[in-house]
Structure formats: structure tokens, C-alpha cells
Design a protein that fits this description.
Blueprint (H helix, E strand, L loop, with lengths): L4 H27 L6 H10 L9 H25 L3 H22 L11 H27 L5 H8 L12 H4 L4
Amino acid sequence: MLRNALWEGLVAGIAGVAVMTVAEKLEQSITGRPNSYVPARVLERLTGMPDAEPESRWRNWAMHYGQGALLGVLRSVMAEVGLRGPVASAKFTVVRLTNDQILENATGVGAPPQTWPRKELVVDVLHKAVYAFATGVVADRLAGRRGPGPGGRHAELRPGRQADVGPLPRSEAYARG
């Protein structure tokens, strides 16, 4: 069932990062906000590389695109099982933000978001939402070519969580529509 999630997720994640990067560059051209090298610093800490002086654009892009591609696999899994559309992408936005915060805080590169200036926090949330929704569009479209996932097929029986509607039979849960 999930064999396509890996490659489709990498494609969706890279597409999401590309869209987010364009949105960031547009925002920076309007606000004058400088480039962030937090991704590069996180990568350096995670891998034990020495801190690059001056900041390394290549390390920054490696972490920026690598992290987005890998998280795209999770969004692809969501789409594969039937968690699709804007609500699924909104949920995925939280996952993306949480992933960043875990890595940044665990490495000592970042600080908890509640300590950030509000303007900076809003910009970060908006960019991660752009990533999550762009990734979701691609993941949903790729998974949708094979029909609804198991959750979607279950919902076709009767929408919602109903006490009188049991699980799909195993043979149907993993069948492709």
C-alpha cells in the first residue's frame, strides 16, 4: 500500500520546499528580512561539522531541501491512507513546525517560539504553511491517481465515525480503488 509513498513524498516535499523558497524570497524582497542560516547551523550541529564562517549557502540549502523532502514522505503517507485536502495540510503544517522546533531547540540553534518576536513567528508559520499546503497538493494528486485510501473507502460506507460501521474487511482495506 505504501510503496509509492517514498518516491511520491520526496517529489511532493521538494516541490513544497521550492514553492516555500519562492514565497520566502518574495517576502524578503518586500520586508527586507535577511536570509536565515538556521538550517545550516542545525545541519552542522546534527552532523558534527564545524560551524561555517561565513555561513554556508550550500549547507543551508542541503538542510532546507533535505528536511522538506523527508517530511514530504510523511505527507505522502497521509495522502496514501486517505488523509487528504486542506484539513490534512493544516495538520501537516503543525508537523512541519514541530519538526523544525525539535531540531532547532535540541541542537541549541533555536529558541522556543513563545520567546520569538510575534512578527518573526507569524512569518515562520506562514512560510511553513505554504510548504505544507504545496506539498499536500502534490502528494494528494499523486496518491489520488490510485483512488481513495483505506480511510476514504471506509468513509464511503457511511461518512464520519459511526458506532455501527465496523472496519473495512482486511481484503478491502489494502485493495486499490
